Each structure stands twice: as C-alpha cells, then as structure tokens.
Amino acid sequence: MDFVSPIIDIVSRLMNCCTKHVNYIRALEENLNQLKEEMDELNAVYMDVKNKVNVAEAQLMERTNQVNEWLQRVEARRLEVGGIIHEGTQHLETRCLNGCCPKNCWSSYKLGKMVVEKLILVEKLKLEGELENSVDLVSVYKALKFLGENSVRIMGLYGMGGVGKTTVMKRIYNEFNKDFDIVIWVLISDEVNMARVQEDIGRKLGLSLSNANNIFNVLKTKKYLLLVDDIWQRIDLQSIGVPSPSFHNKSKIVFTTRSEVVCRHMEADKIIRIGSLSWEASWTLFQKNVGRNVLSSDSDIRRLAEEVAKECRGLPLALITIGRSMANKKTRHEWEHAISVLKNSAAEFPGMGDDVLPLLKFSYDYLPNDCVRLCFLFCSLYPEYFEIEIEKLIIQWIGEGYISGYDNFKEAFHMGHDIIGILKGACLLEEGVGHGYVKMRDDIRDLSLWIACECGREKNKYFVKADVGLIETPQTGEWSLIAEKISYFANKITQLEIAPKCPNLLTLLVSNNIELEQIHKDFFLNMPRLRFLDLSNTAITKVPSSICELFEIEFLDISNTNIRCLPYEMRNLTKLKYLFITRCKIPHGIIMNLSNLEFLKLAVIKTWDSEGGFNIDELLYLKQLKSLEIDFYSDSKDVEKFLSYPQLANCARKLRVIDCNDITSLALSASSSASSDLCLGPLKGLEYLGIHHCSEIEELKLNCINKETTEFEGLNESLEKLYLGNLPKLICSWDARNLHLNAHFRNLHFLQLFMCHAMVDLTWLVLIPNLQKLCIQYCGLQEILSSCEEFEGGYDENTFSNLKILRLYYLPNLQSICSMSALRFPSLEVIDVRSCPKLRRLPLDSNSANNTLGKIRGTKEWWNRLEWDNETIKLHLVKFFKEGKKD
C-alpha cells in the first residue's frame, strides 16, 4: 500500500493546478472588480505621496531614489492596468448565456491570469506607498538630504514614542545601503548594556572576539554607517571601539531618541524632529488597518472612522493599534461608542492601556527627576491643545510646591523655564501659536492622566472635566472621595450649588468659567485638605464664606472676577503663600495678617485708604514677600509712597500705573530724575512696566549715562516688557552720552505702543539691543528710526538684530521704518502691517532675514504699492507675502 500515498499526492497537486487555472476564468469578474478597487486605492496613496513630495520639494529638498522609482512604477502601471480593466469590462459584456459562459475560453484564461498578476502587483505597490505614508515624509527627506552632506557626521532623529523614528531609520538603511562598505544596525532600548552593543557590532563584523581593539581595527579602514535605534542617554561609542566618523573616512552615525537633549549630548551635527503624520497619511494608514470591508459595510461608518482617525492625531502607533481594534466593528453604534471612549477616557480603549500608553510612558520615566514629572502631570488639568501661558503655568507649579527652595522668584522662574525646555525637548509639550505659550497634544494628555491615575488603577485620582461643555458639576459620587485634583476649567458652569465631599482634594481649578456667577456659601466645607484653588476669570461677585474655613490653603487666585470686596474673615487664612486679587476692595487688616505671603498680586485704588480700606503700609508686615505684582489707579501719591519703601520696591516684578492724571513726567533712572519727576529708579528687579491712560504725561526719560561717567540706578538692567498705552502727550527723551549702544536695557525684549499720538519717531529704540517683539498701534509716527547723532556710531544694518516680530497697525503718518535701504534682520520672522497707507518701502533686500522670515502680512493693494530698489528683491520676498484682512 506504500505506492498509494505518492499517487494521491500527485493527483492532489494536479487538481490544485487545474483549479488555479480554472479560477482565472471562473473568478474573472470578481478579480476584475477587486483590481478596480485596489487601483482606486493605489491612486489615492499615489496622490498622498505625490502631495508630500511636492511639499518637501517646495522646501528645497530632493526626492529620494526610492520614492522617485516608486512614483514612476505607479505611473507606468496606471496606464497598463487601465487598459486591462477596459479590455476586461468589454470581454465580460460579450459572454454567452446571460454572461455565464465565455465565448473564447483561451482568451478568458489569458485575461484572467493577467488580472490576477496585476492585482498582486498593485497590492504590492500600494503596500510600499503606505509605508511612505506611515512616516513624516518631509522629515525623511531632511534626514536623507543632510546625511548626504559631508559636513554631517552624526545625525540625531528625535520625536515622541510611536511616531515612526525606527521607520525613518529603515528608510535611511534602504537608501544608503549600497553607499557604504558596511551598514550596522544596533538597538539600545531603555536599559543600556554596552557589552551587549559591543557584541552585536562585533558579530555583524564577523569577529569571533568582540573587543574594542578588534572593532576599531576593522572599522578604521571602512566607510561605515552605524544606525543606533532608541537611545535614552549619551552613550560612548568610542569606548567599545567605534572610531569617530570624520571628513576623511566619510563614515556616518545616525541615532534615534525621544529627547532633543540627548541629541545635543551626543554632539549631533544635525538634529531633526520626526513629526506626526499629515491627515492624508493618517487616514491612509488607518484605512489599511481597519480594512476595506468594514469601511464599506455601512454608509455612516466611513464618516465616523474619519473622526476616530483624527483622534489619533497623526501618531502611527495609535493609528495602527486603534485601527486593528476596529477591524471587526461593522455597526454605527460601535463606532460612535469608540469615539466617545477616545474623547472621554482614551486609556480604556482596547490596546491603548496595553500597547500605546506604556510605550509613551518611557518618555515620562526618563524625565530627570520627580519635580519635572509632577510639573508634566499638572499640565493635564488643562484641555488638550489649549494655549497655556508659560508664566502663569510656572507660577502654578511654584504654588503647588513643585518648584521650591529658592531665595527669590527670579531663580524659581528660571527653573520653571528650564522645565518647560525639558518637556518640550522630550516631546511632551509643544510650542504654542504665540510666543510665551505651550500646549499639550491630546494623546500626551491621555498619557499624563493615565499616569496620574496610577496607570489606570485609581481612575479618579485626577478628575478632569476641562472644556467639555459642562453646565453644572457632576453629582457627588465615589470619584469625589478619591480625587486629589479636580479641574472644571473652561466650561459653561453658571453656579456651584452642591457641596461635594472631597476629603482628599488638594487642588481645584474652576477658572475660565466665564458664566459662573454664584458659589454656594458652603461649597468648600468638605474640602479640609485643599491647598490650591483657582477661581480666576469667572463672574462671581463675592467670596463664599466657606473659603474662609480652608485653613490649609496656600494658593488662592480670584483675579479677574466681579468680586467687589474681600470678607474680613480671609485674614484667618494664615497659611496663604500665593494670593491673586484684582480691583476688589480689601478691608484694612486682611493683607497685613497674611504673614506667610510670598507672592501677591493686587490693585491699589485711591479711595480705599480714606474709606478704611487697604493702605500701602500693610505690605510692610509681609516679611516673607518675594514677588509683588501691583496696579496703581488714580493717584501718583500711592506710587511715590510705595517707591519710598526699599523692601517693597525690591519685591516688585510687575507694575502698572493707570489713570494717574497728576503725573507729567516719568523717569526710569535716578540719574534722569528731576524734583518734579516720578522716578522709578528704585525698582531694580522690575520685569514688566505698564503706563496706561495717564493723559497728562508729556515725557518719559530714558537717560542712560555711562557708568564710567556718572553713577546711576534704575530698572535698565531688569526690565523685560514695556507697555505704553493711551498717552496722547507722551514723547520719550534720552541722554546717551558716552554710551555704547548695547550698554543698557539688555533684557527688554517686548515693547508695545498704543495711541501715543505725540511721538513722531522712536530712535531711542537703538537703546534696546535685544528687542524681539515690537508692536506699534494708533500712533502719529512719521518714521521709526530717524537720525542717530546722539549715539556713538549711530545705527547700522545690524540694528534690530534680535527682532522677531514687527507689527505696525493703524499708523496713518508712517512713511519710513528707517533711512537705510536695508537692515539685516537676522532673526526676523513676521512683519505684519495694517492701515499704514504712506508706508511705501520696507528696509529689506535679498540678504535680509535669510532662513528666518516666515511671512509679510498686509493687504494686496499695500503690497503692490511697495517700492523696491530692484525687482529682484520683490521676486525674492513675494513667497513670504500673506494677504491679510482688508481694513
């Protein structure tokens, strides 16, 4: 019977072969329809890749050989497959017996076989194209372009987890594989084991003994490419035998990491951030993982699937994980549920808690210390992508106790800015739209909340309902017993009635509920441990009496509310360290009793003292005070009194003088002060100065005598921001004898002038060498920089060398920015012009703002009227012009 098995095997193989060939004829129509669908999808992928190539080439990058070859193959196959589909459609129309039998079996066989072959080829091309779309192609092009330059020896690729850094490395491997004598790929991961790395390199070099000398002796004679994936800290490759790449050996090292700081520590010649996918690429990748059958199973599912894909925010790992989890969901209800879960509690979505979030958490784990980690977690109390003001955020971190142990607030703020830099470098925070703001991606926010809730084990430890449209707070439940931090930030809540039991609550944010008018007097009674309370930017009219029972509270922000008067009982909140109040009456004795205050923001109004309210002398009782933000309304005498106390003047960080119409002149330093001046010289630590609606001020003195000639004191060294608004008579005067132009106002980077009609020029701006943002609105200027005889050497093409943003709005008399035909503007990013009809020239040429200029905004009519020294300059700059709204 042994001969039977071979016969059965032969017959089986013959039957399979026959079936395969018969199927070419029998399944022709089905295969032809599938080929049409696959070709449509290939065309969509082709257009996505083509668009991304166009974007990259617009940034002066060259397409890679791999991409170019793929595009050419698709273009060739499109014509070829189009002909086959046309031929196949006609063939099916000529079949006999109502389309059941072909007229010519041989012709059907050949056509059917051709359709199957092209179907396989199209699917392969589509898969290759989807790989192109699974990474940020612009970043890929940058990496490949720079790696080809001789000056780039070491390149760092950084980005958040799951964004596709390893995929970019694979592209580099494929593109450069033939250009080097040897290409080595090494995976490091979170636990660095240099002995294992050395062994891996030695094995790939074919060494029996992988020591440093052997590796060095092999590689020193080779042109090598070393690809090091997923490093978390600086690694010393020379210690394991890898010779430094040089211009002579033309070798290269490329590594991936999640931290920009690591790139710098590795001394990378070029650092490239790998960003998220575009929407087109995201959708393509998501469709691939969900599957065509699911997306076509219901007319609504495609629309809902797009919404789910958008929740992934271009993160390839999330697109793949969530796409696969939805691959068998064929009803509208399942997709709507998925959207709800992703928006409200993404960590509970299948695969997120097991695959996506743990991978992203490595970035959190590798933050340098617990202080930075706590600051990161605090950011989740804000809505996703919300523009968070950096200064306010740092103050809140300080108020929470995360940043502590500093003698003065300047040092603490420096630490806060350093933390911001660390979080941005780790891709856990992003730059906001405006300077001075940051934001958090929603996937990173999901990560932050998941970690804050003990990786999902204590779901409501951070109870966050920020910007979700709440009209009232949730009913008290189990969450309130667990919650340590609660955020109702930026909702539509109108009143807080129910007093929740929150025995463990430490932090409560109710700020930015602009419709909130009433809080029940007992609302805070059951929050015995509350230390941090933010009620700012609400419409409440009085402080609930139960706030005065919060004896553990250290941080209280009730600024920008409609509160008319503080309750006298607030004097009992003796643990308060940080208090923010604006324009509400303060009964005498409250402030002086808050002896632990370190940070105070308040307004002083002329009538209060005479009505038995707050007076400046009370501040002298605050022995712990380190930082003071203070507004003076209506009377300069309070300002003078404040300036007479050195211990108070030294604490002032921000000062605003508003509606003080008895001031006629203002001096910024003692050397310029006459007896009639209000002299701000004692404010040696002032960072922000605002002068508003002081209609009688005629002169602002900016005297800056050289220290070698005359001793002076003033806020010249500390001032960072200056606002001058609604000062119709104001002009600025200065004495700059023997002064080098970079001598003073070194820290002043922001200046705004609003409705200062008497000023005709701003030549004194040359005293501000590091000015970054200049905004001039509704002023009578004719020229910004006129003659500069008062200053040694005048000004030159390097004036405004640090200016990034120039906004000129509603300046009907402005004719010129300066007399020079062009300034270098090496840092300039934005020029924004509105209603400056007489401004016919910009001091720009082909060498101005090279590599920095992003846009010149104005009306089309204004742009067309501009005059240039030659047409080449206009042609060079026209690509930066963006049409703004007409006035």
Automatic annotation (TrEMBL):
This is Disease resistance protein. Keywords: ATP-binding, Coiled coil, Nucleotide-binding, Plant defense, Repeat. Residues 489-806 form the Disease resistance R13L4/SHOC-2-like LRR domain. GO terms for molecular function: ADP binding; ATP binding. One of its GO terms (biological process) is defense response. Belongs to the disease resistance NB-LRR family. Gene3D superfamilies: Helical domain of apoptotic protease-activating factors (1.10.8.430), P-loop containing nucleotide triphosphate hydrolases (3.40.50.300), Ribonuclease Inhibitor (3.80.10.10). The keyword Nucleus does not apply. Residues 142-293 form the NB-ARC domain. The lineage of its organism: Eukaryota, Viridiplantae, Streptophyta, Embryophyta, Tracheophyta. It comes from the Eukaryota. Residues 18-59 form a coiled coil. Pfam families: LRR_14 (PF23598), NB-ARC (PF00931). The keyword Coiled coil applies. It comes from Thalictrum thalictroides (Rue-anemone).
